[in-house]
Amino acid sequence: MLSPVVQPVGLMTPDRSVPSSPTVCPAVASRTTPSSAAPVDLSDLARRLQKAISFSKPPSPAISSSSSSSSSSTSSTPSSLALPSPGLPIQFIFKKPEYNNHYHETHFHRPKPKDSLIWSDLRQFFSPLAEEDQRSDFGNQFRQNIESRYGKWGRFIGKGAGGSVRLIRRDNNSLAVKHFRSRLSQESEKDYIKKVTAEFCIGSALHHPNVIQTLDLIQDGPQFYQIMEYCPNDLFNVVMSGMMSRQEIACTFRQLLRGVEYLHGLGIAHRDLKLDNLVLSPLGTLKIIDFGCSTVFRCPFETNITRSKGIYGSDPYIAPEQYTQPTYDPRQSDIWSCAIIFLCMTIRRFPWRAPHARDPSFRAYCSNPQLQKAHLLKLLPRECRPAIGSIISLDPAERTTLQDLMKDSWVRDEDVCTVDAPGAHHVHHVTHPSSNERANLVVLSPEPPGRMAEREKRRRGY
């Protein structure tokens, strides 16, 4: 046993045989003023406290205040307080948490206990959706009744690898609903949900006149639905009608570059630009849709570019470096796709089926790039040849950048439609014009204008 040490008045002794100061109790410790000015050896006190802590053990929560081994001073301690170990002041004792039912209910989200079998069966019989409402699967904050919120289902308007698109209407207002494909058998649930939410997060963050508006994401069981703005005019059908003029094609291409410039400014690359992913609003404004293949190549407030890996997009529009390089700049790939879109709008056919050596047309283009490029550019209007020729270079390092392309005189001075005002020197063909028609909108007819005029003349007997 330790030798007795003279302690100053007001300090607790580690020896429990010596009664503590009258001003100190097991529950409350109050400060007293020493009656003498004797110096205190702090190093010796700290050494004794450390020795007492090393030889003591935390008390068990099961020890009751009425234990026979407790002293008269500790017998009055409430049962909710832990008993101090021998030689350790009460202010150094921490209560051990009690892991009871209250702790588990407040610290863990556990499902409620199921009811009895009879009551559960009766409840499922009278309310079949009761169990569905209690599910805690991912994205339950998005679960809603789509029809009660947005209206009645309409016809299907499109289908692709990422899912199908269907109309939904309420009060003469239509929205497009993308029903994402189901999860594949070899695809984990984590990867599937990551893909769905990534497309929604990118689309919902974009706000530009030439980019489609993404409004909402809804989960219904294992299925996900994305609510979007609806544009009724498919650019592919307008192009294949053969009724687009040079000025109309140039305006559409200029709007496409504006949308891509906005995406690249936010650090986002589309990676699947094609005619099928371009639509026209009732006012003739071009909109970029479908961000299922999009990627973030630059984070905000950063300058480093994350290069892409793998092949993305549709074969005729894919840039050749995706087949030849392990990594590539997705911005240059988007610019290449824009040039192929312009070629398709002008000559109404693809220059090749896919940009790899197995395709004979592209192999011929690679055999003599300068000569084949000249032959291809002869099919285009003279004023746009320098700009398009600078894009369709096989080497992405020699390909023009989007910033330089926007400074080109043909691109910069072209008559372009905006949301506020139409172009002054051209018209736009649409299949579903707006009720507030612009002067430059022409309804796309199922037959060429000349054939319709001849039939009308015969009908009137001219």
Automatic annotation (TrEMBL):
One of its GO terms (molecular function) is protein serine/threonine kinase activity. Gene3D superfamilies: Transferase(Phosphotransferase) domain 1 (1.10.510.10). One of its GO terms (cellular component) is cytosol. Its EC number is 2.7.11.1. It holds the Pfam family Pkinase. It is an enzyme of class 2 (transferase). It catalyses: L-seryl-[protein] + ATP = O-phospho-L-seryl-[protein] + ADP + H(+); L-threonyl-[protein] + ATP = O-phospho-L-threonyl-[protein] + ADP + H(+). Keywords: ATP-binding, Kinase, Nucleotide-binding, Serine/threonine-protein kinase, Transferase. ATP binds at K178. Residues 1-41, 54-83 are annotated as: Disordered. Residues 151-411 form the Protein kinase domain. SUPFAM superfamilies: Protein kinase-like (PK-like). Belongs to the protein kinase superfamily. PANTHER family: SERINE/THREONINE KINASE (PTHR24343), SERINE_THREONINE-PROTEIN KINASE HRK1 (PTHR24343:SF137). This is non-specific serine/threonine protein kinase.
